[in-house]
Structure formats: C-alpha cells, structure tokens
Amino acid sequence: MTKVLAVLYPDPVDGFPPKYVRDDVPKITKYPDGSTVPTPESIDFKPGELLGSVSGALGLKKYLESKGVEYVVTSDKEGPDSVFEKELPTADVVISQPFWPAYLTAERIEKAKNLKLAITAGIGSDHVDLNAANEHNITVAEVTYSNSVSVAEAEVMQLLALVRNFIPAHDIIRNGGWNIADAVAQAYDIEGMTVGIIGAGRIGRAVIERLKPFDVKLVYNQRHQLPADVEKKFGLTYYPDVHEMVKVVDAVVLNAPLYANTYHMFDDDLIATMKRGAYIVNNGRGEEVDRDAIVRALNSGQLGGYSGDVWYPQPAPEDHPWRTMPHEAMTPHMSGTTLSAQARYAAGAREILEDFLENKPIRPEYLIAEGGSLAGTGAKSYEVKKGQKSPGSGNEDN
Ligand code: NAD
C-alpha cells in the first residue's frame, strides 16, 4: 500500500475551519507567462478554504483514500519521537510546505528507504537536501508559480510599510497616542528611490511590474540578464555583481532561491557597503542573510529597516532576535500561503500525485530533481555539489 505523509501547519487556535470573511476567491486560469495554473483531474475543496493546516489536509483526503493510499497528516515534525520521524521510514511520498518545513536532511533521507517523491506544496525546496535526494533517486517537485504573485504583492506592501514607517505609526494609535512627530521621524516617500531586486524570476518580475508605477529607479541582480525589451519597458539596470548593486540602492528586495551561492549573502561586510539607512525586504529564505548581522545593522542604524517572513529554523524559537529587533516588519512565513495561493498549490500537489500514482511524467516546470540530478525548474534555480549538504535542509552545520 502506498503511503503519503503530509507535514502541515497546525490548525487555527480557535478551531477548524476558521470563520471565512469572504465567500470566494477570484478565479485565475493562467500565470503571467501564459502557463496554466494546476490542472488536476478534479479537486475536492472549494477555493478559498483553509487547506494548508492539518484538518485542511491540502484537500487530498478523499482522493487518496479513493485510490487506496494511506494518507497520514501531521504537524508534529521535530525530534526523534515526532510523528514525522516515526512515519518517514515507511512513506513513499512526503508532502511539506515551506511555511512549516519538514526538513529532509541527508540523515532522514537515509532512513526513508521507501521514499520516491518529495512534494513541496508551494515554492522553494531548500528544506530538502537536494544532494541526498539525488543520491537516493528521489524526485523532488514543487508547484512552480503557484504563489509567486502572492509573495510579490506582500513584498511591495512590506517595502512600503518600512519606508513609510507604517507599523510604528500604527502602534502609536493602538496605544492611545497621537504624536505625529514621532510617527514621521522615520517616514519617507518611496518615489525617486533606487530599489534593487535580487532574483528577477517569477516573484522578482512581478515585484518589478508592481513597483514601476511608484516612479522608483529599478536595478536588478540575478544569474542571467533579462531580455533588452524587458529592461527597456521597466527602465531596468542590470548589475551582474551584487556587491556593486547594493552600493547604489536605497532598498533591496531579495527573492532568490536558497543554495550555497545565496547562503548568508547579506553579512556584515556586504551590509556595510550599503547606503546608511537602506532597507532590506527578504521573502526568499531566512538564511540568505546572516541573522545577527541584520540585528547589528538595525541597532547601529546602518539599516533603516528589515522586513521578511522567512526565518531559520521554522517555526522560529520564541527568543529569536528578529522578534524584538528595532525597525522590523516581520511576520511568520505566510506571504505564499494566503487562502488564494493555497487553492493553487493544493491543486498542484493533487496534479503531481495523480501523475505519480498513474506513472505519468510530472510537468517539467514542477520538477526540481529527478533521476539523480537537478531537473526542470530546479536545474535553473539551484546548484548542488556532490558531497555538499544543502543549506536550509536542517543540517546541523548550516
Ligand atoms: P524563480 O525560479 O522564478 O526565480 C528565482 C530567480 O532567482 C531566478 O531568476 C534565478 O536566476 C535567480 N537567482 C538564482 N541564483 C541567484 C543568485 N545567486 N543571485 C541572484 N539571483 C539568483 O522562483 P520564484 O517563484 O521567483 O521564487 C524564488 C524563491 O522565493 C523561492 O526559491 C523561495 O525560496 C522563495 N519563495 C518564498 C515564498 C514565501 O512565502 N516567502 C513563496 C514562494 C517562494
């Protein structure tokens, strides 16, 4: 009997389902590049429902049971006595969301003798040790594009929240105050600022499109230069070297994947070369920045603000310094798991499972690794070196 093990975040504290404030979500059929949203044979949920928590079960229960598949869903993922650790050795498929990652370290993969497929319900498969997955011929797939626009919308909001000093100003009225001088002492307009995008892929492109009407100067850094017509349309300047780019920007929006190349990209040295008071928005992955370097730079005033929803590890411990540092606009990892996004990536997980169970090929754009090497989108996004543990996957030496 095939066994699918899903590690999902816990249900709402007030119980499941939550009281929905809207009756539907807009129907999206195509992504901005023309590719289609997931196309499973059918779905057993209503778009807009909470699917990412344990009781939501990604809307897969009915389907998997109808196929005679054992479907185990848990949020208990930490430590040797966790349900995840206990069920893993006999699981054929693991499903996890980056918001509540089931870290698949090399050691865990070693124990998972039956594991054939690791599905990321969302985008970003750094929580899987990709090298170990390749060595064990495990397919890794994610639901490409499913929440890229969701994240881009959040990043624009986060950037504005920092520059306009929204959260401290909001705290003033929440606490009964009205001191306008305090509210504006760190508030600026974004108009005319130079914003640097790191990783101009699906999220980065959507951020660029959304920021353009704010009359900012847009610069970008990524592995490959964008076509000349795209650069012209958005007035983009390409910086092949991130070190050169950060010197000229007022703010950085970071959405590159996490791998050896981007691990701790923003450390004390790089941050020291930025303009005093620059802002960083990072919804890429927590480990793309040095945790303590961010805290130091906010305390010294070298950074004007930091906003992100990605941490390491996740869930973040209660004493994580990002919870209490100054000039932050932090949230738990949520930008890619709006109810709107969940409908797409749950349908994508279903599509991948249908293909897997029927021995059909998985859409190439969903593939991260297959047949012992990086594949599809994974070959464009990540790099792995034999014998090297991937950052983000829960290895102790990260
Ligand atoms: P994408 O593959 O379309 O884009 C990634 C881009 O990063 C590519 O254009 C690639 O060329 C570029 N890149 C790779 N290495 C780089 C480097 N060293 N320096 C600069 N750029 C580099 O993927 P996407 O949909 O835009 O998602 C990107 C990442 O965002 C994911 O891998 C994930 O880590 C993160 N993400 C976060 C959330 C969230 O909820 N916070 C949700 C989705 C994705």
TrEMBL record:
Protein name in UniProt: Formate dehydrogenase
EC number: 1.17.1.9
Intracellular or extracellular location(s): Cytoplasm
Record-annotated D-isomer specific 2-hydroxyacid dehydrogenase catalytic domain positions: 62-362
Region annotated Disordered, chain positions: 378-398
Annotated substrate binding sites: 123, 147
Any one GO MF annotation of this record: NAD binding
Source organism superkingdom: Bacteria
Protein's organism: Secundilactobacillus folii
Keywords noted in UniProt: Cytoplasm, NAD, Oxidoreductase
Pfam families (alphabetical): 2-Hacid_dh, 2-Hacid_dh_C
Family classification: Belongs to the D-isomer specific 2-hydroxyacid dehydrogenase family. FDH subfamily.
GO cellular component, one term: cytoplasm
Feature type site, description Important for catalytic activity: 285, 333
Function as written in the Swiss-Prot or TrEMBL entry: Catalyzes the NAD(+)-dependent oxidation of formate to carbon dioxide. Formate oxidation is the final step in the methanol oxidation pathway in methylotrophic microorganisms. Has a role in the detoxification of exogenous formate in non-methylotrophic organisms.
Listed transmembrane segments: none
Binding site for NAD(+): 148, 202-203, 257-261, 283, 309, 333-336, 381
Domain D-isomer specific 2-hydroxyacid dehydrogenase NAD-binding: 156-335
Summary of subunit composition and partner proteins: Homodimer.
NCBIfam families: PRK07574.1
PANTHER family, sorted: FORMATE DEHYDROGENASE 1 (PTHR42938)
Biological process according to GO: formate catabolic process
Reaction equations catalysed: formate + NAD(+) = CO2 + NADH
Enzyme kind, highest EC tier: oxidoreductase
InterPro entries listed in its UniProt record: D-isomer_2_OHA_DH_cat_dom, D-isomer_DH_NAD-bd, FDH_NAD-dep, NAD(P)-bd_dom_sf
